[in-house]
Amino acid sequence: MPNGVQQRLGPVEAPPPVMDLVTFYSQNLAVPARRDIDDRKVLAGKKQFYEMGCISCHTPKFVTLRGTPNKAQAFQLIWPYSDFLLHDMGPGLADGQAVGDATGSEWRTPPLWGIGLTGTVNGNMFFLHDGRARTLAEAILWHGGEGQKARDRFAAADAANRDALVKFLESL
C-alpha cells in the first residue's frame, strides 16, 4: 500500500501491536561492534580525541539504569560517545529554527557509535544535522560555539594526529 495503512489493522501504519514490535526491535538492536581497536593509529587517535577535548560533549561511556522495565537493558556499560545534551554550536551551524527546547544554534550531541560505518549503511558520507560535511574531518572543522576549542585543537594539530583522530572515529 502506498502509505502502509492496512484498514483491517486500523487507520494508522503501525497500530499498537505492530508499534510494540517495532519498539521492542529498536530498543534491543545492538550497536555495531567497534573495529580495529588494537590498531596503533586508532589508539593514537583515541588519545587525541581525549586530549583535544572532544569528550566534553562526546562523553565516551555510561551505565544504564538498574530499574529499567527490560532487565536485559539494566545496568549495561554502553559507549555512545555522546552526552545527549543540547549545545550551542555557534553561528556556522545555526539554522535559526527553534525546535522544542533547542534554539536555532543548539544541537543535541549525536552518538558517535557506528559513525565509521556511515558509508556502508547509508551509501553516502554526509555528516552533521544537514549533511553539509562530506568527511569526518570536515564535520569537526564545522564545530563552533561550545565545540570551538576542540575544533581549534584539531585544526592546529599536525596531519598525523588529525588522521589518527579520524581513524579512531572510523573505528567506532
What is the gist of this entry?
The chain is mainly alpha-helical. It is built from six helices and four strands.
- CATH-defined fold name of the largest domain: Cytochrome Bc1 Complex, Chain D, domain 2
* CATH-defined architecture of the largest domain: Orthogonal Bundle
CATH class of the largest domain: Mainly Alpha
Question: In angstroms, what separates the terminal alpha carbons?
Answer: 37 Å
Radius of gyration: 19 Å
By secondary-structure content and strand pairing, the structural class works out as mainly alpha
Lateral arrangement of strands in the main beta sheet: 1-2
Mean of all residue-level pLDDT scores: 94
Q: Name the shape in a single word.
A: globular
- The low-confidence runs, each spanning 5 or more residues with pLDDT under 50, are none
The ordered string of helix (H) and strand (E) elements is HHEEEEHHHH
By DSSP (H or I, 4+ residues per run), the number of helices equals: 6
Query: Biggest β-sheet: count, sense, barrel?
Result: 2 strands, antiparallel
Share in helix: 25-40%
